[in-house]
Amino acid sequence: MTTNVRPWIPAICGGLLLTMLTPAIGQTPQRSYPSQEYYVGLALMREAALPDAVEMFEASIRRGRTDPSGKWIDSIPGYAMLGECNYQLGNLRLAHQNFDAAIGLMLRHSGWLQAVQWPQSLAGGRAPVPVGTWAASGRRSALANVPETMQIMMGSQDVLGQIQQGGTLQTAQLMKIDAAEIIRALAWAVYRRSQILGGLSVDDSLNEQLISSMGRTNLPPGPGQAWVDLLRAIALLADNQPQQAVGLVDRAATLPGNFDHPLTPIALLVGANLLTVAGKPQATNQYVEAALSAAAYGHYEVAAEAMRIAVGPLASQGSGVLTGRAGAAAMQLGRKSRLMAATCYLVAAESAANSGQLQVAQRSLADARATLSRRNVVLPRVEAYANYCLAITAFQNGDTKGAAVALDKVMAFALGGASPTCPHTYQLAIVQSAAGGGAIGGRTADELLTALTQGPSLGQWYLDPVNALAATRPNAAVDQMRFSGLIQRQKYDEALQVADELLGNRFRSQLPLSGRMLDARWLVSATPDLLSPNALAVRDKPPALIKSIAGLASVMADHQTTLAGLPFEAADAPQAAQLQSAWTELATAADQAERLVGQASVHRMDLPRAFPPAIGDKSMWPQLSPGSALLTFCPAGPDLIGMLYSNGKVTAWQVARPASLLPQISNWVKTLGVIRRRGGAAQLSTPDQWEPIAAALRKQVLAGLDDPTLTAIDRLVVVPYGTLWYLPFELLPIGGAEQSTALGDTVTISYAPTPGLALNPPALSKDKLATGAIAGRFLAPADAELNEQLSQELIDAVAGTERLPGQANLPGSLIGPRFGRVWVSAPIKPGTKSPLAISPFVYDQSKLGGDLASWIRFPWGAPGEFLMPGFQSNISTAGGAVTGDEIFLMACGLQASGAKQLLISRWAVGGTSTAALLREYLGEVEFSTPLDSWKRSVLLLQNQELDPSSEPLLSDGDAKAGPASGANPLFWAGYMMIGADIERLP
Predict the structure, then answer these.
(1) Domain boundary at 197, 218, 248, which?
(2) Is the torsion defined by CA of 980, 981, 983, 986 positive or negative?
(3) Which residues constitute the domain of residue 705?
(4) At residue 635, does pLDDT exceed 90?
(5) Is there a domain that residue 815 lies in?
């Protein structure tokens, strides 16, 4: 054991060793249980020297008494506090095991309470031990005169009876035990175990045994019955029986005559939790009372827990009422417990931050850091809480990078390591293992997994923000397990709902705090039709932070209105100054809003998921018009499942050999001529070269859909997955070999990243849209003059089109909201490091605010229509992983930033063919829908002849073959119109 802690701890250890080695002289004093090692372990734990405490608790268990049935009750507190140490260290598996061991001993020796010689009277009560001036109790109670040790009769006085019955002879003997500490430690074990297991405690066999066992005791008046009542109450709460527990908790808090006892602090803490769940404002006062009572008894682990939770219910009120109390408690009690000091300094910091006292919060954080950095202090869970508090203050200070670093450290604790460190991830691992091993299944497994994948509850935020942050992280394996189970049970409606969550989580997992920041922006900026009922309820009665963000969003909208009334290009110096001032004010308001968004994202409050919009259960789905359908693909482990929603029902099938899709699609893309061939060979292919591949893919991908089903569809929204993003569904054949036709010839096809974005598409503005143009060297990269000519023709296609970036040369995230439509005639290649690091406007790739991640932030509002004919997916280039993620994340990112209709290319074509498509589309879309306008543009191109020399994808071999037909799929099949134009019944 390391002894470099407080000066008196080595003395205790030395005295203990001397006691153990000195032979008995005369009459040996009667031994008391638990052993002295246990109390040294308690001191070390409260001093935050957790590894040393673990050694002492293990020693106390080894030294514990044994009988024929094994370990005796004196090992209960050793196991309980060993579990607490492992909880604080972040090893929940060992914590769970030790708590179970403590409860198991209680159940094995269930009759020991009746053998205790309880005190005849608690008269002579003494006043509470002074705890300093950090808080004043309003309870006016005194400490009961509960003996530190009591006698217990062990064995049997009926020796003859034992001999006749056989077995081991145990003669009756009186022993000294610290009954109060044994029960107190057990109560803490039951309390902490219920936190670790959460909802899994319901119907837990060990917990039910404890409830039953505690209900059978019949003890004389005094502390024993109150202690049993509290144990039973905590177990009942774990079993989700609060109504049966409330009375027991109240009765257990004090003894007759208004006396506190050693379990009063835990009773007050449990009661405060009940008040918090009920939304009662007096919860905070009771937490403080619990901390006062615990400090009076020296139970600093209980006092620290009470103070840490006390700040939770106040967070949404922006209250700093605990700042002074917590800071004073840390200073006054710090010499008695570093665990208490570090926790209270952090509570003071969070409380101060909640009320905007940034300097006080920073000072308290510094004091906490000083305590945590002391030699021998090992408190990983408290360190994670410290980093959480640091993130709050960093956001308030405008230090988003510092906040991100702090949050990374929080998540490293919450999600890192070989075993789960937080209750949420631990519960998820238990259910996942049970479901995977067949211990549970069907609806039971689905209900448990669903409950654990819906994001943190308000209760989780109140009790433990670190655990709540762990619950924000999606778990792809669990999502797929849920989806696979529903498919196996043919619950296709529910499976489509889970598929929507799974695909949405794939995008959210790429975002800071798994999309929680984005939710805050959408909550105040999105149109009501895109928000769930829960989100609308929060918008109607917003917390203070959301209300402040909404206020700044309104200010930004005013700035946008001002800018819309000014010319994009200044005519003179005063106008240029006016424009510069307006842009600066907009950027300043956006920065202020982002500071609040950061604070809201880590605030202890309910922030409903807003993007992607979820489809919810089937009762919330729109009824599609006859002929309209949704086609979704979703993974189920190694399998890939296709689902079709049409005519009010969902059908599903398994895609054959999903692992073979990538090589087949890659071969198809190569056959179409996307990849440059060697030696100047012709790029253009003939139908007999690519149609057999298309037919094979049709049978493989759409195996569950026969031709009559497909021919009955006239509008189809496809939600691809993985490599299917590279597949032009328009080219898949339907009909027999003799009369086959391409799917796109009879069905109008669009795409969507998730079913929610397909069934609930954001509506385009009906106002006349301002158009922006970015013309790079793309249409004719080898001929600057022709490139400029073709670009100018596109600019002239819509009157008033502004050429970007213009004089201001602003990044896309700032300038994008000004335009209703923007087309980018330039190569756009995804980055290999971060999918959201790409710049949609190209020219601002190296500018702050140019990347897609910045578009998702305020001022928020991408162009409603965004055309990217130069996007180069990884299937068409030599670099990047061919997973389809670069298309999926680009589409999600743009729609998350407010874009509604996207044109994106699987492979970049350029040339006069692209110019013809865009020119026709821009001229038509003013009078029709984007999807219908695009389909008309493709039809017109298919009837044109193209000059191979003006098509960058073509080679000398194509030029020698003469004019090319625009009907060749190389020129048009690579484009996707993302943004559903699905028809729904009123």
Answers:
(1) 248
(2) positive
(3) 618-753
(4) yes
(5) yes
